[in-house]
Amino acid sequence: MALLRTPVCDLLGIRVPILLAGMAAGPCTPELVAAVSRAGGLGVFGATGMTAAAVAADVARARELGATRIGVNVQITRPNTPRTDPGTLAVALADVRRALGLPTTPGPPLPAPVPATARDLVAAALDAGATVVTTGLGDPAEIRDLADTYGVPVLAMVATSAEAVRACGSGAHAIIAQGAEAGGHRASFEIPTDGRVPLVGTLALVPQVVDAVDVPVIASGGIMDGRGLAAALALGAQAVSLGTRFLLATESAAPDIYRVSLPHLPETATIVTDAVTGRPARWVRNTIIERLVDGPGHLGWGPQRRALEDIRAAAIAQGIPEYLPMLAGQGAGMAREQDAADIVAEIATEAEGIIDRLAGRGR
Ligand SMILES: Cc1cc2nc3c(=O)[nH]c(=O)nc-3n(C[C@H](O)[C@H](O)[C@H](O)COP(=O)(O)O)c2cc1C
User: Fold this and answer.
1) 103 lies in which domain range?
2) 90, 225, 302, 347: most buried, per Cβ within 10 A?
């Protein structure tokens, strides 16, 4: 893999410039993180929503499984203003709730669990042996001192060059430039009041971020294979961070519905909306997403997610893809079930072949 080795590989202690994007709420199991790291890339946990103890246990397990380089991702968020109330939201979703056998009117709100802070999660992960911190959705200033204490690099995910410059001012050691194709939440630090965030594609974003900062840039969004890795390197990125491609890895804990749904999706199958969690994210367009997009708005980051929890659980239990909110990128149709180590090797080998071919060395 000598052709692919870049300075950021040395910063992260990896052999292959491929990162598993930290994905909250399940997919990034210790088995997946460890498999990517053992294959020479960097496995990253998505810690948002977990307890500090659970994150520490997962990092420890990945180490037991042979990972020496382990990342932890946190989403840096603040509460935002609700646009509707639980009763109005339930009315908008009444037919979905009925179809899933759920009560159409919500019960009294459950006491909201106190979520672990980003700092708590990062501290627990670093204490357990994580070697890299990545951030999304906000300025990494909040956790920078913790990373410094442990002597590990901070990779800040951004959606614009301005955010990249700001993150560098906060001490980021590398930038993950997240293009509009990306699955999951938009990395944008601040959300305009109309919910419309910048949607700059990876091809346009990466070179402009590379030109704007003096630290290594990692490309993210729509990169599904060796063609994407070779293209990202050509744009000046030093590595890639992939979410959607790893969702279907054998070791991923994404619900089976993802495995059934993703490989058949056309590139037009996703949509960015803040209606599902209170912050803009790219979702597979299905019945529940359409209902929410056309609905009354969200209850704010945190409450909105909790309000949909029973729908999510019932859709998974009953195996109904139309009612499960599924985060995925525009490249979803290129994902397929495969061991994570094979994904890393296949992408790296394909990229090397392309680079050789373009250099006239023919393979
Ligand atoms: C299911 C899913 C969950 C995600 N969760 C997170 C997360 O917890 N934190 C984060 O910073 N980014 C998250 N992302 C975004 C990824 O970091 C990354 O930007 C994106 O997956 C790259 O685009 P791709 O999906 O086309 O590879 C998530 C993406 C997906 C698909």
Assistant:
1) 2-358
2) 347
